[in-house]
Specification:
heterodimer; A: 6-stranded mixed sheet; 4-stranded antiparallel sheet; about 25% strand; disordered N terminus; B: about 0% strand; disordered C terminus
Chain lengths: ~290, ~280
């Protein structure tokens, strides 16, 4: 896999898009862009188990970035790293220009996070507004109780996702798509600079999937948030993101969708699981799992 | 019956029951929501081993109960955090080990000691003024800390990783919660006993869980149920001359089953709210 990188890099660098190169490599990100998340030859994992190896990648303010790759490719590890829950075992990770060590990063409140669906107990006794108010807790810090200003911020976040009328409804009474909207509102209540979404459409019906993705696109456009969207569903996001990041333990490609979604690149990552239909739909093994 | 309330011992018992009932029901909310039910049981038995060692060696039993309880919850928390062992396995091992130690310490005592058994089965009617002051002091400490860190404790009970990712010091809050569970168990030992204190923590919050879908009302209902059943249990105990611990717990259990039968959650069909 490692030996594939120079060949791939040459391929990507020769294309028309402004692909993101490893730091210092030719074609690095333009100076006019402001990188707010920067992986510099960073590897993550545990002794003997490398989940992500030698990642060099910059994500710039205001970008909409999709992260794709097969199961076990390191997408969730990348997510945990950005959240400051894992420190690199090699290399560096800078978030908002600050070296970010696991469990110590004070920038976490600036990253709104939507975890994978299914990690939260549906019957947990919490209302919609109580859930969204939790988004304020990290920013408030210890010893400070949320006040009317925090409640107003939470209500504004709920209105962004069109769930303000359900503020007193129990979270467990909502549909899957509605719960995702509430969790997006919780992330927005942090007043984040980055919205990090881990498989936001998994487990939702087709209509709800479409609505959630449209909402994310709307938030990107309206609030100018930097979006990092981790997904299996390449077709759902390909026309909406500025850049795609293709992972399989290593960074295989990063750039505009048209440059990343090339059969010769995808086949190296997905192998025999890759099917490209006549209508240019990209079907991979993971796609079948979730549809 | 009214005359009963004029006795000093009865007033002390009612006050102790109300404080312990209130304290256990507040801590119980976080124990139930965070899924730490078994930790409460394990801590109670560890604390009892501390009491037994205290009486064997002539050392202050409550201090040793606190030390044993804290050691148990901290080891459990550390093991879970490191992912070396499942929480129920580690607490199960510590639970049985500390119970074995308690039996060993009691066996080593040269004479029968009724006070030790008081901590095992609870004897709220014999609570002294000094014990009442200790219960009051520790209750104020535990409830004060919960009030101070309630938003963080609710968040880690909801989703610890999400809390950590949002900038809440979730790991430290988890250890604070474990510490509060240990202190609550020790505070309650004399009143309901090591075997039944676990029920006092678990049942009021579990009952409230059946009745509401809001964190705030869950806590409120849990306190009302905890205090009411504890005080009523003491009155039943004194009136009909039955042991106080079982009276409190069996009354709370009855209320729990009634709440299950009439739970709005159980009765309501799952009908998603209409989205826009």
């Amino acid at each position: 896999m490692c030996s594939n990188w120079p060949t791939l890099w040459s391929l990507l660098n020769g294309s028309t898009g402004h692909l993101i190169a490893p730091e210092g490599a030719p074609g690095s990100v333009s100076d006019s862009l402001v990188p707010i998340i920067r992986f510099d030859h960073a590897s993550f994992g545990f002794p003997g188990v490398i989940a992500l190896k030698d990642i060099s990648l910059s994500i710039n303010a205001g970008e909409f970035v999709g992260v794709i790759g097969p199961n076990g490719s390191g997408k969730t590890t990348l997510c945990r790293a950005i959240l400051g829950l894992m420190a690199p075992i090699e290399g560096h990770l800078h978030i908002f220009d600050c070296a970010c060590d696991a469990l110590r990063c004070h920038h976490r409140a600036k990253i709104g996070y939507l975890p994978q669906k299914g990690v939260v107990d549906r019957n947990f006794p919490v209302t919609v507004l109580e859930t969204v108010m939790m988004g304020r807790y990290g920013a408030l810090g210890l010893f400070t109780r949320p006040g009317s200003k925090d409640r107003a911020i939470a209500m504004e976040a709920l209105s962004h996702v069109e769930m303000d009328k359900h503020k007193d409804t129990a979270l467990g009474h909502l549909s899957g798509g509605q719960q995702q909207r509430v969790f997006i509102a919780r992330a927005l209540a942090q007043q984040p600079k980055v919205l990090l979404l881990d498989e936001p459409t998994t487990g939702l019906d087709m209509t709800a999937q479409h609505n959630v993705i449209e909402l994310i696109e709307h938030l990107h456009d309206e609030l100018r948030l930097t979006i990092v969207l981790i997904t299996h569903d390449i077709n759902m996001i390909r026309s909406r993101v500025d850049r795609l990041v293709l992972l399989k333990t290593r960074l295989y490609a990063a750039g505009p969708p048209a440059d990343v979604l090339k059969p010769e690149i995808l086949s190296q990552v997905y192998g025999k699981d890759l099917v490209i239909t006549e209508k240019d739909l990209i079907l991979v093994e993971d796609y079948h799992h979730h549809h | 019956m009214i005359e009963l309330f004029t006795y000093d011992f009865m007033q002390r018992s009612l006050l102790a029951a109300a404080m312990v009932g209130g304290l256990c029901s507040v801590v119980g909310v976080f124990v139930v929501l965070r899924g730490l039910a078994f930790v409460g049981a394990g801590t109670a038995h560890a604390a009892f081993a501390g009491v037994a060692l205290g009486y064997l060696m002539g050392w202050p039993p409550l201090v040793l109960a606190i030390l044993f309880g804290l050691a148990t919850v901290w080891i459990t928390g550390w093991v879970e955090e490191k992912g070396r062992m499942k929480l129920d396995v580690s607490i199960g091992i510590l639970y049985t080990t500390t119970m074995a130690l308690a039996i060993l310490f009691i066996g080593l005592m040269k004479t029968y000691n009724a006070e030790v058994y008081g901590y095992l089965f609870g004897s709220v009617l014999s609570v002294t003024s000094e014990e009442l002051r200790v219960i009051g002091g520790l209750s104020v400490l535990v409830l004060g800390l919960i009030l101070l860190f309630s938003k963080e404790l609710y968040f880690i009970a909801f989703d610890q990783e999400m809390a950590e990712a949002s900038g809440v010091p979730a790991r430290r809050m988890f250890f604070l919660l474990l510490t509060l569970v240990a202190l609550t168990v020790v505070v309650s030992l004399k009143t309901v006993g090591a075997i039944l204190v676990f029920a006092m923590i678990l049942i009021p919050a579990s009952t409230a869980y059946q009745l509401t879908s809001s964190l705030r009302t869950l806590t409120l209902y849990s306190i009302v149920i905890g205090v009411t059943t504890a005080v009523a249990g003491v009155v039943i105990s004194a009136t009909w001359d039955v042991p106080s611990g079982p009276a409190i717990v069996l009354l709370a259990t009855t209320v729990f089953f009634i709440s299950v039968l009439f739970s709005p959650k159980r009765m309501r069909r799952a009908t998603p709210a209409h989205a826009h």
